[in-house]
Amino acid sequence: MPDATPSLPNLLLASSEIDRDAAARAGHGFVRGLLQDASTKVLEVFGDRTALDGRALGWRAPSAADLDWYENEGVVLYLGRAGESARLALLRPADDSREDLLTLRHVALDLDHDDLAALTTAVALSHWHATHGHCPRCGGATLPRQAGWVRYCPNDGSSHFPRTDPAVIMAVVHPGEGRDDERILLARGPRWKGPHRSVLAGFVEPGESFEAAVARETFEESGVVVDDVRYLGNQPWPFPASLMVGFVATARTTALTPEDGEIEEIGWYSRADVDRGLAEGTLRLPGRISIARSLIEHWYGAELPDGVEGGSA
Ligand SMILES: [Zn+2]
């Protein structure tokens, strides 16, 4: 495996150590064979939720019922190989009656790297399958193929592949008169209330580079002009289908014009402002599974505490 270590530390969802073994997916009878092999490990995912077994995912051996599910066009996703075993995810519909089911956000800090990578991929594909039951060309029903990595339209023979949408997320930093005067731009959108603040982010548009998206989104959301855009790291963010690509950018202006409907609070924070806000409960940072948290801590120069009210995504 190539070294996939990201340049930002603590990107929990980028810590993939599963061998995806993509070449095996299209093999005839491949999934059927895995479902009849007692060494295979199976995880059931219901919508975006799954059950834990202690502090691990609830892996189990395959059953005859799993094979029936697969033979009846239920989605069985081949995640790849981890350790000595092949890993499959059975992607079931959401089940609101099951109170034992937890989301990736709930369990991320409990899981090891292999389990975290497996669940991140399974949740992303679960959402994709649930929303791509019909062919974009002809509207006919599509069927899962290639071990859950393709949906196929039997009406016109077209194949459809899971998408992941690139989004930029950026620490916009004004250098000021030196380190004590340096400030980071933190904001709150309408989804969050109270002291929650994070860095700016937005989707990359067709025909646009990452760096241009950083400059455009920053200007649209805050009115700040940036340059010197530098890449720091990335991680998947399957809520539902993003790949968050992280940057630091230098602010050349400081006047703030928050975008209507997108930004409710915005401001510049020195390191001392961050310390004070966390201590007084007037500032809450994004959760530890987010790249936003990593970007803020990268700028700050150390891991930050969760503040007086405890952490929250
Ligand atoms: Zn079709």
TrEMBL record:
Signal peptide: none annotated. GO terms for molecular function: hydrolase activity. Its cofactor is Zn(2+); Mg(2+). The keyword Metal-binding applies. It comes from the Bacteria. Residues 162-297 form the Nudix hydrolase domain. Coiled coil: none annotated. Keywords: Hydrolase, Magnesium, Metal-binding, NAD. It catalyses: a 5'-end NAD(+)-phospho-ribonucleoside in mRNA + H2O = a 5'-end phospho-adenosine-phospho-ribonucleoside in mRNA + beta-nicotinamide D-ribonucleotide + 2 H(+). It is an enzyme of class 3 (hydrolase). Its EC number is 3.6.1.22. PANTHER family: NAD-CAPPED RNA HYDROLASE NUDT12, NUDIX HYDROLASE, NUDC SUBFAMILY. Belongs to the Nudix hydrolase family. NudC subfamily. This is NAD(+) diphosphatase. It comes from Dermacoccus abyssi. The gene is nudC.
